[in-house]
Structure formats: structure tokens, C-alpha cells
Amino acid sequence: MLLLSILLLTSEAKGVHVECGKRPIFDGRVQYSRIIGGMEAEVGEFPWQVSIQARNEHFCGGSIINKWWIITALHCVVFEELLPTDLSVVLGSNDLRSSSVEIKGVTRIVLHKDFQRHNMDNDIALLLLDSPITFNGLTEPICMPRKPSPSMWHNCWVAGWGQTSSDDKNSMKTDLMKVPMIIMDWEKCSKAFPKLTKNMLCAGYENESFDACQGDSGGPLVCTTESDKTWYQVGIISWGKSCGQKNMPGIYTLLENYSLWIKKLSPSKRASKWWP
Q: Which N-terminal residues, if any, form the signal peptide (predicted)?
């Protein structure tokens, strides 16, 4: 606990310039060791991950892209017909029961105007917070994907507070869970998902029951490259046929197709430095 406190203070002291995609607490400590088939995330491992809540109940995930803005799946807020005043964003801890969580209100919801309910195309939304986030190691922004994207991402993960059993709605967790992911070939995936569009990607783990599930929607698929320790958000958890079926990937909004949309709709003074 003392080590964590020291790392937090050090991170705050260095907080003059914040880089996206970094994990100062997780990468600066000795790591030791449950989503479907998942494992519990370590402290500071996914500092960009947030819980989006209504009436103090978690229902979707999201990610920090800068100190004012959260990115998530559009269907999270549209299907529930939620207003900004209905929402709160919880950040700063893997444990939603922790007394150290930070809670932000939402003042604006930005929806992609071309969202298609029948096939979930353009499943992306932005949330404007009521006050800025102070980055401290437990809260950090994620980088938007590079252009052009690398031909192969090296290390990909999803995390969330959703169901850990596909047939048990009571299996939602208050501790953040993580699972490794592999991005699948788009052509191969489109044969299993005919309504797949070029704004989507497929990710899963062949021969394993690793997947995102209800309550994980809106959360980020994050990856690194083999030569780069910086983390980039590649996708947003969107939809799928079921949770945790072997050889059945989940579908994600392909974030690289929306970089210009995000820049345009996020105030430039607040957002421009978060894109490489």
C-alpha cells in the first residue's frame, strides 16, 4: 500500500505533461498474480477504463480520451433512452465498491448521426464530463489508433465489469475483469456475421471461451505493437451472437474510422493533443 501511495504521488508530481496510453502505476510496480473466462485486472493496469452508470448501477463501459471526454458505444445510451442527467461516470479504481472511486456527472451526449439500429453500424458516442479529470496514474487517457494502423497488433485486451457467466444476469462483477483478445480476419468473420460492415472488427480467442458480455458494452479493446509500449484503443465493445462461445468472436466498432469524427466533435483545445 505504501508503494502504491508513493507511485501515486510521483505520478501527480510528474503531471505537467500527460501522455496517452501509459500505465505509470502498473508498469512501475512488481506485478503478481475473472468478463467470460477472464482474470482480475491489476491496480493501474487499465487506467483509462470507466464505468458508466445510471441510478448508481453499472450498465456499460467506456474509456478516457482526454480530461473532458469519454468514448463509449452509442447503443448504451440510445437503447435505454438516457439523458445526460441520468448518467454518472465512475473512474479511478478497479473496485466499484471502493471509497476511492471518483464520480463525474455528464453534461452532454454526442451520438453518431449515422447509427444504424438494424446492424449496429456507427455504434459510437461521446460523453462530456461536468468537470475535468486529474490524471494521477489510476486515471489516464488512452491513445487513439495510429494512422495508418499497424498490419498486426501485438498484445490486445478487453476489460469490464460485465457478466462473467453468459446465462447468469447476477454474475456482474464489481471488480474489473480482463481477457486477452486476438483480432480476427475480417473476411473470415463476415461469413459468420453477414451484417458486418467495414466500420467493425472481430476479436476473440480461438478455442477459448474468452469474450465480452452484457455490461461490458462500450468498453475499449486496447492493443500495443511489438515495438511500442504505448497502448491504443482499437475498438469499442459493440455486439455479438452470444457470450463466451468457443470460436465465436465478438464485434467491435473499428475506432480508426472515427478519428476525424472525434476530433471534430471534441473541442480542439481539449482534445487535439491526444492523437499521435
A: 1-15
